[in-house]
Task: structure prediction
Amino acid sequence: MTDTDMARLADPLGQASILIVDDEPGMRNFLVKTLRPLCQLVDEAENTEAAAALLNTRQYDVMILDNIMPGQKGLDWLEEQRREGGFTDTILITAYADLQTAIDALRAGASDFVLKPFRSNQILNALRRCIEAARLKRENMLLRRELEATGVGRRRRRELVGASPAVSQVRDLLDRVAQVSTPVLITGASGTGKEVAARHLHARSSRAGAPFVPVQCGAIPADVIEYELFGHAPGAFPGAPAGREGLLASAQGGTVFLDEIGELSPSAQNALLRVLEDGRIRPIGTERTLQLDVRFVMSSSRALDEAVAAGHFREDLLFRINVIEVAMPPLRERGTDIVELAGLFLAEIAAQLQLPPLELSASVKSALLRHDWPGNIRELRNFVERSLIFGSFSLDTLAPARPAADILPLEEVERREILHALEAAGGNRSEAARRLGVSRKTIDRKCAAWGL
Result:
């Protein structure tokens, strides 16, 4: 990548798409020549009709709109667009400025106001301010949603922790598919870290600099889920005086994580299927479609094929989302990852709650490793937090240690497992060795020692 390419990516304009609406060819030509070397896309329209046609084909980051044009004034048209659910940030340009025009521009939804004639640096600065303000507004909205969902101080992890074979296999699969836009379905029991896996995938992808938008499908009432996902025009439903950008549009260029997709209502499933097929959404109450550039990652803790059989989930939607399935292992299958996660939670929660840390002694580690953790990582975190609050590990809440009389000698355990494997393999020593993960010579040597 050249220095010029890197500078363009660092500039807010580098990834921006701009629409110029002006009836004067000279002004359009000036703006196009100024912006095209700096922006990802620059389109132009000579009137509002042509602009509306372009807006129906794609979403622009910013529209530069002239106010005084033959036919419909720019401000009147912008006000119509806002009523119909248009969300494109707009910079109004005009040679006829007065206080009332400025007030009308703000009321119509313009983000900025630039007087003609202007120099190139004036319009460039206005564009950068507009793009940066839109980015901050979107980030603020997404952060508020995350805080409402997780609470103050709880950290959202962006990478999978642990070196166990089970989680290493998941990590390798996520890294392998990170750079494609194919939908991914993450399955596993509740608390196994499905959202962390989705964030890991996003962070490893080329979309890492764009938003990651988690949507808890089961937490949003069925009667408003489509308004939340797709956005809506003003007055689209009672109590909605203003239009609102949907969650899918807010993730433009990034990743949408639909948590517990099996909880979507039938109508939302139908709408999502259309989005997955053509990549376009239509805000509720509008006639305008928006082109999306997002990657979809879904999760489910229930078997979706069983939901299909029960008539609760669309079979064609399952076929569409289940291109790549990532199965998250339960915590009990992750070995010493349990101890690593416990240490991580101890440090984070102690700092967050300003409590003295606790030591993971050998006996505590043993207790953690022998417990089955039916609630998975969520149960482990709650156990650590409760222990920090009370100042000691409440090991009595975990699975008790086996009585000494029930503990078999290691040689006897080994003998039983090898004999079980031989029986299951029909006496085939090579197959038994493969299932146990040992060499054929080891099986032969043990059998000879046992007189078999």
Q: What stands out?
A: The first helix runs from residue 3 to 10. Residues 3-8 have pLDDT under 50 and may be disordered. DSSP finds 19 helices and 14 strands in the chain. The CA atoms of residues 272 and 317 lie 8 Å apart.
